[in-house]
Amino acid sequence: MVWLYYLRFFVRARARTARHPLLLRALARPGRARAYLGGGFPPEFGADAAARRRSGVALGQQGDYVASALAYRAALLLEPEDADALNNLGWTMGKLGYLAQAVPPLEKALAIRPDFTLARNNLAWVKSQLK
User: Domain 2-130: which topology?
Assistant: First the structure.
């Protein structure tokens, strides 16, 4: 139930104003996301990677970028080579202001699918914001 506390906290605080170091660690390190969130993800993220990615898209469209990034991390725990989830995670991290942490997922998405134009554009946008 620890994850529920953090999820509620971040949903209320909204990503634009809350920069909690625990969340940054959870989002920036794929292998540790589950450990930092208390061992699990909300059931509404779905049981399979595609459902979790769809949840991330829906949450991002609602402007809840923190929960969206967590959903993408949850999808990547099941399918680490999902280029769409990597691209969406990179873009979401950029929107949250974590530009340095946005670059690796975008580069990995391009390594998996070199013709992925959207990931290439998102990587260019993130790198332009870093300067």
Answer: 1.25.40
pLDDT tens digits for 22-31? 555 555 555 5
Q: In the structure, what pLDDT confidence band is assigned to residue 44 with cuts at 50, 70 and 90?
A: low
Question: Which of these, 20, 49, 65, lies nearest to 41 by C-alpha position?
Answer: 49
Contacts 24+ apart (CB under 8 A), 12-18: 14/63, 14/64, 14/66, 15/64, 15/65, 15/66, 15/95, 15/96, 18/66
Q: Position 107: which residue type?
A: E
Alpha carbon 48 to chain centroid, angstroms: 16
Q: Could you tell me if 90 and 121 are in contact, meaning their C-beta atoms sit under 8 angstroms apart?
A: no
Residue spans per domain, the chain: 2-130
The token duo for 124 is 């260019």
Q: How far is CA 43 from CA 46, 48, 52, 74, in A?
A: 6, 11, 10, 11
